[in-house]
Design brief:
The protein is of the alpha/beta class. Helix content is about 40%, strand content about 15%. It has 15 helices and 12 strands. The strands form 3 sheets. Strands 2-8-7-6-5-3-4 form a 7-stranded mixed sheet, sandwiched between helices. The protein has a 3-stranded antiparallel sheet with strand order 9-12-11. Strand 6, helix 9 and strand 7 form a beta-alpha-beta unit. Helix 5 packs across helix 11. The termini are far apart.
């Protein structure tokens, strides 16, 4: 068979670090082993029934069997406006400051192509969500990394960044509650971010994927709650985690009108908007009582407490995450993050993600997801304890 050479754009794409981990886990499963997979960020609970029922009802509407409006249904944008006002006291113009996205991953990758020219500089958290790199590579832009260190609560230290880097930067990605570190942003940090971005003319994109998942009574902050944030940036919000709608690919971007228009222009040339019934179900999720969301957070918090307590009793001195459904766990002395993840997989049949896969400053940690039942998390902790590593 004739082989066709991929484009230079495809060749620039970063390697999918976790593909190797997934293959190792599948190989063990295929060999008949009981593998507990805590290495991925795929919610394990179903979408709340009232949202599913709304989709079923809406799917019968013949108007939705036609093409959706390119830029999405106004009723969904108005629901987003109302949701942000109710949850964060942030005012939005639904026609100018809201873009509908086919999942926030799509938006995050498209944003770099929409704003960056070849050679432009983007600031990325390290460790951070690997797919930020994908859009930057496609845009032929360059990157500078902002270390996230435990001693700085996994927040970028802007004072440590050179003025030259800040002056050159055109785009900055942030993500709080943070994947993978589970760090939480404070109002003062977001206020400082607005100030830095204004002084250096940087567009900020805050990836608010874990917006609903804060523990110990703490509600995660929206970046747009900081005064002036809409002047210099946007926030991307996915329904994947808040409403367990990962497979529905429903998300949105809100904030700076010029950036929203640029995203919309990009999407005009690449996509039709979401299936209308999905948009109606997304609207329903946003405007309905949020009881299921509160229950979801309670479920994750109970899982966190059980898992962290069990690991600490086993002698592994690990911190309890403040948000997200991840735990960021320090690796014992004598192992790299990849070696330790391999050890847990091969000896305990527990999958965790090595921190190095999220960036150089992820070395020394592994990420475990709270995306399994309490019974499976208890079993995972028991298997790790039997290894007598601590």
């Amino acid at each position: 068979m004739r082989r066709f050479e991929p484009s230079d754009t495809v060749k620039r794409l970063p390697e999918q670090f976790f593909a190797k981990l997934v293959k190792k886990a599948h190989d063990l499963t295929d060999a008949g082993h009981d593998v507990i997979n805590l290495g991925q960020g795929n919610p394990d609970l179903p979408t709340p029934p009232h949202i599913v029922d709304e989709l079923k009802y809406a799917a019968d509407n013949p108007e939705y069997h036609k093409y959706s409006p390119f830029r999405g249904q106004l009723f969904l944008k108005e629901a987003i406006r109302d949701f942000y006002k109710k949850e964060y006291n942030v005012s939005l113009d639904p026609t100018r400051e809201v873009a509908i996205l086919a999942g926030s991953k799509t938006g995050l990758v498209d944003l770099s192509q929409a704003l960056l020219n070849p050679g432009d500089l983007a600031l990325l958290p390290d460790p951070g969500y690997p797919d930020y790199m994908s859009g930057i590579a496609i845009a032929q832009a360059s990157t500078s990394f902002m270390p996230l260190r435990a001693e700085h609560d996994f927040l970028p230290d802007y004072a440590s960044l050179s003025s030259d880097i800040l002056d050159r930067a055109k785009l900055m990605f942030l993500n709080y509650p943070n994947n993978p570190t589970a760090g939480m942003a404070t109002p003062s940090f977001f206020n400082e971010t607005v100030d830095v971005a204004k002084r250096h003319h940087i567009c900020v994109c805050h990836d608010f994927a874990y917006a609903a998942i804060g523990f110990d009574g703490e509600k995660p902050q929206s970046f747009l709650q900081s005064e002036g944030a809409k002047e210099i940036g946007i926030e991307m919000y996915t329904l994947s985690k808040t409403f367990n709608m990962a497979g529905w690919r429903a998300a949105f971007a809100v904030g700076n009108a010029s950036v929203i228009e640029t995203i919309n222009l990009m999407q005009d040339h690449k996509y039709m908007s979401l299936f209308g019934a999905v948009q109606q179900a997304a609207m329903h999720a946003l405007v309905s009582p949020q009881d299921a969301v509160r229950q979801l957070v309670t479920t994750y918090e109970k899982r966190r407490d059980l898992f962290i307590d069990a690991l600490q009793r086993a002698g592994w001195h690990v911190p309890a995450p403040k948000g997200t459904f991840f735990a960021w766990l320090p690796v014992p002395d004598g192992y790299s993050s990849e070696e330790f993840a391999d050890l847990l997989l091969e000896k305990a049949h527990v999958v965790v993600a090595p921190g190095i896969g999220f960036g150089d400053h992820g070395e020394g940690f592994v990420r475990a997801g709270l995306v399994a039942s309490e019974e499976r998390l208890r079993e995972a902790a028991a298997r790790i304890e039997k290894l007598n590593l601590f």
